[in-house]
Design a protein that fits this description.
The protein has 268 residues and is mainly alpha-helical. Helix content is 60%, strand content 2%. The longest helix has 28 residues.
Length: 268
């Protein structure tokens, strides 16, 4: 049974199966955040590059280049968004914005992989598959659940325009800080450095902060319980990841500034 106040902000669930899927999504994504904090990292970025850490990883697995691995992460979700325009045409403005935002978000990810990011290591295949499936599920479930919800009454409070602004801010902020990260290393360099510029003077993971803004923007555009659960789960994971990232930098760099928080300026 839905909490009465939430009826103003969310669509009803279109079926019991969607409700069950929403609950499973919440549990699994929150678990990923907890797993990061307790040290059970998904093996990518600095957590897959044992040569960059003071304590080598004990996990083993097939390793792919970071560029190939990250393309595998995001491309299925991007293609799911593209296909949705053909398989699920029509609908109102809100549904169009959901499909557009989901598709553009993962297009941006692929664009950054190809033209922005610089790489220093590889990615563990098991983590690649897990994250790729998760992102594909995120893309398809947000679109399909919203499609199934279109026959239901709209929430009395319309958040899609606020959500669109949040999404755009998140996209710009994320791209800007990924671009700053790519400029840290000169050609041929592979050593990690303390990031500078933008919000890096306040938090070690501003790109995660704006990623969180992106997903909350998506949830405001859609206003389905599934979209809000995905935003909440994504936030839990990225907060956990940022906590471990800051700890990694503190251990690696003796001069890491104490004032720099994890992901929320001045707070955490």
């Amino acid at each position: 049974m839905k909490i009465p106040v939430l009826q103003h902000f969310m669509f009803d669930e279109p079926s019991i199966w969607v409700t069950l899927a929403t609950i499973v999504t919440l549990i699994s994504t929150v678990y990923l955040g907890i797993a990061e904090v307790i040290g059970n990292h998904l093996e990518y970025s600095k957590f897959a590059n044992s040569s960059s850490t003071k304590k080598p990883s004990t996990k083993q697995g097939i390793k792919l280049s970071s560029r190939i691995g990250m393309l595998i992460l995001y491309t299925p979700a991007f293609l799911a968004g593209v296909v949705a325009f053909f398989l699920l045409p029509g609908g109102d403005l809100r549904f169009f914005l959901v499909k557009l935002a989901v598709t553009f978000h993962f297009f941006k990810r692929d664009f950054e992989v190809l033209f922005v990011h610089k790489y220093s290591g590889g990615m563990i295949l098991g983590s690649i598959i897990l994250i790729s499936i998760f992102y594909f599920y995120v893309a398809t479930s947000m679109i399909v659940v919203h499609y199934l919800s279109m026959s239901l009454d709209e929430p009395s409070i319309d958040l899609k325009y606020i959500g669109s602004i949040m999404f755009i801010v998140g996209i710009i902020g994320s791209f800007y800080h990924h671009n700053l990260l790519s400029k840290l290393r000169k050609e041929g360099e592979k050593e990690y450095k303390i990031p500078q510029g933008g919000l890096f003077g306040l938090v070690i993971c501003p790109h995660y902060l704006f990623e969180i803004v992106i997903f909350w923007g998506l949830s405001f555009i859609s206003q389905t319980p599934m979209a809000f659960v995905i935003a909440l789960g994504d936030s839990c994971y990225l907060i956990g990841r940022s906590y471990e990232t800051r700890k990694w930098y503190v251990n690696k760099f003796d001069d890491f500034p104490e004032r720099i928080k994890c992901v929320i300026p001045y707070v955490f």
